[in-house]
User: Which sequence fits this backbone?
């Protein structure tokens, strides 16, 4: 998966670093001072690096958790996100990470205990009110679970705090560690989907929909709450037909009683990210269709977005109650 | 385009022979050799010479995202004479600035860290090679290309058992020659990566800009329109489809934009 491993000097002897490196015996391990030395260099090419991605084991300094973007929530008033990883092992052409980072190196922060401490403190500051913490904004939450043991560690350390809700967002099928744990009703395992044709065209390296559904089936049988994330909605010629087919596929496996929430929102992107992505992939069809640029955001346009959300909402209401639907308008 | 940099003629000789490079007698600033898309420059020893040579060569050649290789000798405390490594981390001893050339190509060469010094030394640092050019090569090269396409390849010429001394060109050549195949393989693979970054709408762009006037800003818009056309209609010869009524660059761009916007959205 990773041909080269970089390790920050500060975490060379961290027990988690040593454990993770056991998975990479024989690979080249290179010490660096700070992950920013690799991630922030301007003269590098995300697209080329995706061919042989590298992993950086690092220490997260400074703020560990941040307020979730305005307009993104799944039912709580207090929403935060955190990133134990930067960048993703998958290569989805619509992903904002291509526009945000200069490098395709995946960064894994090994100081989980610091994240956990900050999450606890933030939850305590809201007393008994539910606080949602989202993981998987800057990288897939479960894709590296066999070597990172991220979910296992965080769930075990946070589950005894009554007002914490944790979302693990993923496109992965790496659910073995979750299946081995006692289900936590306040941990939502949220899977992202696009219709099969779109997934094949744009989600490179992502497990097939049926494989992800198999993973969901195992989780729901075990009692884990499931989230569905239909975000981004991609506008295509037969939009309604494609997404209707996807919903049929999903709800043929997923028990609606196990679904905690479904969020959905149209593809949109900060203009500077979009420009960079277009520069990386000038021949990508997704970027070749007409898009609107307004207030620094590239999108399908307010009216088309509204149509897409309405269509999706109507289709979803054929299966589920409205209270679990959360359109993303951020 | 492949640009090869060496400090010394002896480091270049095996590659000059392998690629049948010809001396460019009209270039006097540095000794330069060329054949087709391969350009080799000998800078002389040290960081200043290296940065000057790279800046001069890239400015003069003016090519987009060339593959750039620094090839030369290095010292090491323990590695055997003649072993060849690709540098996976290059540190400038004076500034402590580091470069991490991504290792994207499967190569038979091993990899190791490299420390670039201002002066020769016999006090080899632990666990890394030492040279006198690589950090300057990287600093200059990444102004002209992306770091994935810049690599430094070093053959061990001295170690604690056999400290650095003056070597004849033929001795240097004999150290480097066994690794020519690995170097050319690396260059070839990097060349394929480079090809992926190249825009192949250039011919159509030239044809259109000769036919009609486009301002600089319009030329940028035109370039993107041609990319969009290629993404959406890869099999269509654009020039053949331009309606006869179009009489200006502006009219052409309006027509092409409308044409592309009306295409059904299929991925």
Assistant:
């Amino acid at each position: 998966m990773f041909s080269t491993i970089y390790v920050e000097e500060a975490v060379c002897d961290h027990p988690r670093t040593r454990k993770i490196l056991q998975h990479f015996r024989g690979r080249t391990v290179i010490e660096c001072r700070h992950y920013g030395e690799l991630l922030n260099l301007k003269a590098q090419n995300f697209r080329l690096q995706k061919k042989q991605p590298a992993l950086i084991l690092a220490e997260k300094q400074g703020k560990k958790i941040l307020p979730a973007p305005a307009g993104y929530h799944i039912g709580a008033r207090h929403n935060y996100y955190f990133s134990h990883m930067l960048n993703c092992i998958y290569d989805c052409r619509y992903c904002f990470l291509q526009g945000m980072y200069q490098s395709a190196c995946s960064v894994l922060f090994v100081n989980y205990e610091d994240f956990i401490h900050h999450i606890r403190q933030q939850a305590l500051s809201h007393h008994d009110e539910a606080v949602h913490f989202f993981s998987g904004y800057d990288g897939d939450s479960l894709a590296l679970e066999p070597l990172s043991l991220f979910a296992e560690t965080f769930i075990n350390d946070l589950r005894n705090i009554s007002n914490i809700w944790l979302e693990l967002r993923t496109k992965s099928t790496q659910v073995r560690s979750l299946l081995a744990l006692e289900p936590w009703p306040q941990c939502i395992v949220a899977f992202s989907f696009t219709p099969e044709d779109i997934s094949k065209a744009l989600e490179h390296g992502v497990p097939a929909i049926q494989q992800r559904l198999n993973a969901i089936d195992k989780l729901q049988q075990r009692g884990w709450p499931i989230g569905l994330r239909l975000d981004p909605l991609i506008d295509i010629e037969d939009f309604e037909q494609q997404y209707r087919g996807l919903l049929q596929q999903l709800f043929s496996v997923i028990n609606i009683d196990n679904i905690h929430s479904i969020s959905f929102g149209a593809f949109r992107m900060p203009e500077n990210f979009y420009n960079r992505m277009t520069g990386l992939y000038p021949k990508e069809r997704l970027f070749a269709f007409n898009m609107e640029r307004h207030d620094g955001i590239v999108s399908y346009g307010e009216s088309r977005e509204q149509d897409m959300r309405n269509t999706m909402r109507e289709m979803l209401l054929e299966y589920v109650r409205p209270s679990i639907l959360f359109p993303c308008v951020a | 385009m492949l640009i090869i940099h060496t400090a010394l003629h002896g480091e270049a000789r095996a590659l000059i022979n392998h690629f049948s490079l010809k001396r460019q007698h009209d270039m006097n600033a540095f000794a330069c050799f060329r054949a087709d898309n391969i350009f080799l420059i000998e800078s002389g020893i040290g960081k200043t010479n290296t940065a000057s040579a790279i800046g001069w060569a890239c400015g003069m050649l003016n090519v987009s995202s060339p593959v750039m290789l620094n090839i030369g000798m290095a010292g090491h405390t323990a590695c055997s004479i003649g072993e060849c490594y690709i540098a996976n981390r290059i540190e400038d001893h004076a500034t402590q600035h580091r470069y991490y050339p991504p290792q994207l190509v499967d190569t038979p060469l091993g990899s190791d860290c490299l420390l670039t010094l201002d002066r020769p030394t016999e006090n080899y640092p632990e666990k890394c090679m030492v040279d006198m050019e690589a950090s300057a090569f990287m600093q200059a090269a990444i102004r002209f290309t992306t770091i994935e396409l810049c690599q430094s390849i070093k053959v061990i010429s001295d170690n604690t058992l056999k400290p650095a001394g003056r070597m004849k060109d033929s001795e240097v050549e004999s150290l480097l020659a066994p690794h020519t195949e690995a170097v050319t393989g690396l260059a070839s693979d990097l060349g394929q990566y480079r090809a992926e970054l190249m825009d192949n709408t250039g011919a159509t762009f030239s044809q259109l800009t000769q036919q009609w006037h486009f301002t600089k800003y319009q030329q940028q818009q035109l370039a993107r329109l041609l990319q969009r056309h290629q993404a959406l209609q890869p099999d269509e010869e654009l020039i053949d489809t331009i309606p006869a009524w179009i009489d200006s660059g502006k009219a052409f761009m309006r027509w092409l934009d409308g044409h592309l916007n009306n295409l059904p959205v299929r991925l």
User: Anything to note?
Assistant: The two ends of chain B are 33 Å apart (CA to CA). Chain B has two domains: 2-197, 202-261. Strands of chain B lie at 2-6, 22-23, 31-35, 38-42, 67-75, 84-92, 98-99, 110-116, 129-131, 150-158. Chain B has a mean pLDDT of 95.
